[in-house]
Design goal:
Helix content is 80%, strand content 0%. It has helices at residues 2-20, 23-26, 30-50, 62-104, 109-173. Helix 3 (30-50) packs antiparallel against helix 4 (62-104) and helix 4 runs antiparallel to helix 5 (109-173). It is rod-shaped.
Length: 189
């Protein structure tokens, strides 16, 4: 579903840019777009530096632990794709800025529309993929929360069961016996 949404957003942005935004106007936005995409790449590199969370892995359920590590590996692969997409967009924007407004104005109209569409589509794709990764990171944090809370609940339950077992053993060790209880008597007897 997320991939379909990303594709739709990318195609719509590319069409909108090609149809409604002249390439000559985009030259004013090239430098801010380069900065924004560079910040996205820096954020991805920071996230890549985090790696796996530090948890007491032995206390977690094996299937949940495998789910968490698989999710982290998958989102890390998404980071590599984002870096590649952003690098492509940055390369295109830098190339466009080197070509310059004057030379680009000499291109045929269809060429300018295609370039504007490609710029819009790539920028939209970069933004959509960043949004997707943020959403995936939130999912991973929620999974970590469930695992940590589950491990804490398990530890608390084990501690309470151990205390209850200890109390039961103490009761058994003092040889408590039932005392016969006589039925209640009436006041007058």
């Amino acid at each position: 579903m997320a991939r379909v949404l990303t594709a739709v957003v990318t195609v719509l942005a590319a069409g909108l840019f090609a149809w409604a935004i002249p390439l000559m106007r985009l030259f004013g936005a090239v430098q801010p777009l380069i900065v924004a995409l560079s910040i996205m790449v820096a954020a991805v590199f920071v996230r890549l530096n985090r790696g796996m969370p530090t948890l007491e892995w032995k206390s977690l359920q094996p299937e949940k632990r495998k789910e968490l590590t698989a999710s982290i590996v998958a989102v890390t692969a998404e980071y590599a794709w984002i870096i590649g997409i952003n690098a492509t967009a940055l390369f295109g924007l830098v190339t466009l800025s080197v070509i310059g407004r004057e030379d680009a104005a000499l291109w045929p109209e269809i060429g300018r529309q295609v370039v504007a569409g490609v710029v819009g589509g790539l920028v939209a794709l970069c933004a959509a993929r960043m949004g997707y990764v943020v959403w995936r990171d939130i999912d991973i944090v929620r999974l970590q929360k469930r695992l940590i809370d589950g491990a804490a609940d398990k530890e608390t339950l084990e501690r309470e069961v151990a205390i209850a077992d200890q109390k039961l053993m103490e009761f058994k060790s003092v040889n408590l016996r039932r005392v016969p209880v006589e039925p209640p008597k009436a006041w007058g007897e």
